Amino acid sequence: MISVLTNNWSTLLTGFGNTLLSSVIALVFSLVIGSAFAIMETVPSKVARVIAHTYIEIFRNIPLLVITMFFYVVIPQYVAPMTGFAAGTVGLTLYTSSFIAETVRAGIQAVDIGQMEGARSNGMTYWQAMRYIILPQAFRLVIPPLGNQFINLIKNSSVLAFVAGFDLMYQGDALASATFDTFNTYLVVGVFYLVLTLPLSYYMRHLEKKLV
Amino acid sequence: MSILSQAYTWINLKFLLEGLGVTLEVSLISIVLSFVIGLLLGVIRYVGIKYFSAIVGFIIDIIRNLPLLLIIFFTYFALPKTGLRMSPLSASIAALVVFESAMLAEIVRSGIIAVDPGQMEGARANGMTYWQAMWYIILPQALLKMIPPLVSQFISLIKDTSLATIIVLPELLYRAQIIYGQDTRYMLPMYFMIAVMYFIVCFALSLVAKRMEKKFG
């Protein structure tokens, strides 16, 4: 197991870096997109709610791999060429944004309705109240579930291996097929993932306990 | 239009539907097995048997925090090194069950924690043993609270079966790839069709969950 690591650490580290990079990019964009749709789901306009709801249900109920493969094989055929890394990251972003939207919406709805009423009766517009009163409280509530979404995102980024995204899983698999040492290589890859996900997971559990 | 009629021939659609059958078969077997194992592991983790629960808990945490794809690879490509060789079908089911049991164990544990401790105290005060109280009083209530996260996990499982395409399980995505392998113009129609099939199954399940939640919750 140690020899797999010492002989190939630059390959594995490149993969680790790409996994982290893809996950962070996808996290940032899916937070923005997800929050936008979450707000749309709570506004008074029925059209906005229907659009947001449709978006969320579509991307929640289709496998991430199907979305990713769509961007990798179909989009280049009709629109523009796309690297595996880009296709994977776009797929991850769309898929995760629908879960983040649901999480943030639950957070917004968990904020006491009196907060909005109070802000409005103090002369704030709907959007001012949303921006300064509701969202800050909502985000504090949803930090642990958002953290869990980030853990899922890191794990899910392994779909990049399907589209030659040069992530940790892809590099690990390439090593495994080159050296035939599948057993030890996959163990090492697993340790790399755990370095990211396990501390995050324990920290989120700690935060959850503190919030309750 | 002609591309669509060429792509969606009866033979191709039948081929895809058989794939959907494989997807559902693998999902259903994995759901049943991982539910039973997850329930057991969740209870073990909750009750706190000295050392044993802590070790089980740690293993659950390790598995939960690994990508399912890695577990699938490991089951199909690494385990044969130790002499355990499985068909794509059993390897897919084995990997899904290992991963999902760990995910479900965590849901079960939180479900049990969410039941009012007074329920256990009341049951014990009425003469039930700890395990009687757990089985007849705590678990039924915990299961009701668990319906929404359980069903989302089952939906995830159905979607995750698509990963098994990498170990040539002849499920939906794998068959779509075979069809558009004949003609790349079928790519878009194929991805559209399988997306619709996955969507119908998963969305229907989420609607059932919502109704159950309203009825029992």
TrEMBL record, chain A:
The keyword Hydrolase does not apply. It is a multi-pass membrane protein. Residues 16-204 form the ABC transmembrane type-1 domain. CDD domains: TM_PBP2. InterPro entries: AA_ABC_transptr_permease_3TM, ArtM/GltK/GlnP/TcyL/YhdX-like, MetI-like, MetI-like_sf. Keywords: Cell membrane, Membrane, Transmembrane, Transmembrane helix, Transport. The chain crosses the membrane at residues 20-40, 61-79, 183-203. It comes from the Bacteria. PANTHER family: GLUTAMINE ABC TRANSPORTER PERMEASE PROTEIN GLNM-RELATED (PTHR30614:SF7), MEMBRANE COMPONENT OF AMINO ACID ABC TRANSPORTER (PTHR30614). Belongs to the binding-protein-dependent transport system permease family. This is Glutamine ABC transporter permease. It comes from Ligilactobacillus pabuli.
Automatic annotation (TrEMBL), chain B:
Its main location: membrane. It is a multi-pass membrane protein. The keyword Transmembrane applies. The chain crosses the membrane at residues 20-44, 51-77, 89-108, 129-147, 190-209. It comes from the Bacteria. Keywords: Cell membrane, Membrane, Transmembrane, Transmembrane helix, Transport. Pfam families: BPD_transp_1. InterPro entries: AA_ABC_transptr_permease_3TM (IPR010065), ArtM/GltK/GlnP/TcyL/YhdX-like (IPR043429), MetI-like (IPR000515), MetI-like_sf (IPR035906). PROSITE patterns: ABC_TM1. The keyword Cell inner membrane does not apply. Belongs to the binding-protein-dependent transport system permease family. NCBIfam families: HEQRo_perm_3TM. This is Glutamine ABC transporter permease. It comes from Ligilactobacillus pabuli. The gene is glnP_2.
